[in-house]
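Collaboration report, partner site 2.

Our partner group contributed sequences for two proteins of shared interest, and the home lab folded both. The records are reproduced in the order in which they were received, starting with the first partner submission.
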Amino acid sequence: MLDRLVEILKGEVAGDAVDEAFINEIDGHRPFVVIRGEHWVRAAEVFLQHEELQCGYLRSVSGVDLGNQLEVVYHLLSIPLRKEYGVRVRTEREAPSVPSVASVWPTADWNEREIYDLLGIDFPGHPNLTRIMMPDEWVGHPLRKDYEAYDPEV
């Protein structure tokens, strides 16, 4: 299943679209791919539209601070085919950016806003990328490992 997924993505998106592919044993042996940011929107469209994938349900989107870089993790589900996939899109810490897939899966909208607010990852192409949890005047992104609270007592 993993090999076929990589074959589909490389054929339909780009030969260099997949940086890494692995089975996440801890997560129910879910096939995972790491997609290059510049190919992410097209890859998302392939996940949605390809007859062998049909991932019409975006189960979750999470942002992760890995210390040296940030990443966004997507869990995709094909209800008709009863298959699940994971996708990671990595970005640098300075000026982090991952293209928005809210146009592909509208459920990404609030998730991307939350990640933007709490981790500072920009989502170009998002229809309304504004803070969703923290006040507009809040400084910084509280889920980053290097975040220092203005008032550590709070």
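Second partner submission, folded after the first:
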Amino acid sequence: MIAAREQLKADINQLVVYTSTQAHSSIEKAARVAGIKPENFHLIEVDADYRMCPELLQQQIVRDIQSGLIPFYIAATVGTTSSHAIDPLTEIGAIAQVHNIWLHVDGAMSGTAAICPEYQWIHQGLELADSYCFNPHKWMLTNFDCTCFYVKDRAKLIHALSIMPEFLKNQASTSGKVINKAIYSTQ
């Protein structure tokens, strides 16, 4: 979310986040950490299968744009914690692309199932996402709190989290060949 926020260089008070009423509370927590105003965090209603309704998402985005706000982040879910509902990624991704909104797909709960060929359909539309995560500790018998996080354009993530004070600059760090993950340097 911070990478999405930083690439816009917009007034943080105008930025809006969208996710479904069934999404994990970590999305709201991330919005708070990123400095998004609580009134700019919009929960989108779901259908009878607990999936985010793309039509309602589109309507809310249009209302927000008309109000002078800036939609910047949508969090869709592949397997909600409460019901394993899978949001319609293709439709949500198309909306995100039309409005130039960062699409994150939270596959923490059920995304791992796509390792099986018969469940790969759950990722239809994932190619439209800017970022994606899933948790191997939930289904892959790894130790607790193992999360895999992918981002389409790592430069945006690295730039958003970079701090390069003078005392850390050296030939290796400024060559562009070494990325010090401790400081997320793009130098």
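Feedback sent to the partner group on the second submission included the following. The mean pLDDT is 90. DSSP finds seven helices and six strands in the chain.
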